[in-house]
Amino acid sequence: MLGRDRLYKALDHKAADRLPLAFDATYEVIESLVKYLGIDKEIPPNPESTSTYSTKVGPREFGTDHEIALRRKLETDVVIVGCPTSKEKTIGNWYGFPLIRRIEDNTIEGAWGIRFQEFEYPYGKYIEMGAPPLSKISDHKIIESYPLPDLDLYDYSSLSEILPKYDGFFIFLMMNGIHDISRFIRGTEEFYTDLLISPKTAEALLDKLLEFNLEYLSKCMEKTVGRIDAVFCGDDYGSQRGMLISPKTWRKFIKPRLAEVISNAHHYGLKYCHHSCGGIYPIIPDLIEIGVDILNPIQPKAAGMDPVQLGNEFGKDIVFFGGIDEQNTLPNGTKEDVKAEVRQRIESLGKYNGYIISPSHDFQPDTPIENILAIYEEVLNRKF
Length: 384
Prior knowledge:
Elements: H1 3-11, H2 27-36, H3 39-42, H4 64-74, E1 78-81, E2 92-94, E3 97-104, E4 107-110, E5 115-121, E6 124-129, H5 140-144, H6 156-162, E7 170-176, H7 178-186, H8 188-197, H9 199-223, E8 230-234, E9 238-239, E10 242-243, H10 247-253, H11 255-267, E11 271-275, H12 284-289, E12 294-296, H13 307-314, E13 319-324, H14 329-332, H15 335-348, E14 355-359, H16 369-380
Parallel strand pairs: 1-7, 7-8, 8-11, 11-12, 12-13, 13-14
Antiparallel strand pairs: 2-3, 3-4, 4-5, 5-6, 9-10
Helix pairs in contact: 7-8, 7-9, 8-9, 9-11, 15-16
């Protein structure tokens, strides 16, 4: 059975030969697995190679062809593809977000004027948000006139050329969320203050991001008719302890705009997957109500995200995607601990067949390779 068919079975909550598998990781993990599994011997390293999205900025040995070969070797079923960014207008991308230029040591300017800081850490380099460009601006009229990024920062023709390589996979198109990017443009404290005391300012920014998202998806769909199965939108509403903003505030400002994003995806015949880290239990019924088909990454250590409870309450109404603990079990447990957790998640999150097995976030470099491979071994050797 093709991975694409297996995923559509899960969406219908119907049994297949097995539950679908996914894989996503930082570049350093991909690099390690490509070498560990000998894929670099099958496909020689290529300094010019690219990936559709990456946690690494700058040259990389391994690109799309290596990553696809790795997915096929692990027998995964789904892939999240970011629209490649223009080689003329960008220096790369971060989870699909265009990075435009380096402006000083360790500082990168991205779309919307957002700045990133690049840090050294034991496994390489990582980037995090730096100075938000509109943190000092509170006049909603100025925000309303703030220019949208150039849609040609993306290379839609390259997207259409890459997608056939993923033949057989269920393909998600990555898209950035309006809540997170609002925080990155305005500053988290400033944006959350706006929601309470300057709602026109918050709404002006959210509406601008909504406009951009709708236009971005339209441009992607022009080039990829019939190739994309779903939108994968990353927008974090939770922390380890619970919601970042109150459910009431989320329902007032975020929910109606998210509903429009989802409706637009469904208009194109796509399924909609929402990624939100953290404890978002209070709004899961809302997400189901406005049409979220798949929920990722199911962070089991976060408040309210107990997999057994989630499976019992919502397993008939939504597909879960993730749930294998990347905070403790995967980096610190044994191979048998990981396999036991996979079995537990199949029984809870997969209770009604609507479950894509994967970690609760991208595999991180502190996770032993044998623990990563244990997930796939357990599923592929299991009789469903």
